Amino acid sequence: MSDDARQRKDRADKLRQKFRRPDPGSSGPAQADEEPSEGESLKEGVERRMRELDEADREDHPPPSDDDS
Fold first, then answer.
1. Rounded to an integer, what distance in angstroms lies between the CA atom of residue 26 and that of residue 69?
2. Contact call for residues 36 and 45 (beta carbons, < 8 A)
3. What is the pLDDT of residue 62?
4. Is-above-0.85 flag for pTM?
């Protein structure tokens, strides 16, 4: 496995661990690395997570350049 492929696999594993679903039969959501801030609603938490995922996706897949010269 190349270094690039290994890095992508490691990063994907970390993201899966961070955003994993709770095991069936367990109580409560999966624990993330960081606790939600005090007073953060479920909606705010979901929006924050979506922004984090969007940022991670942009880092992995930058938009194509517009060099049509």
1. 57
2. yes
3. 74
4. no
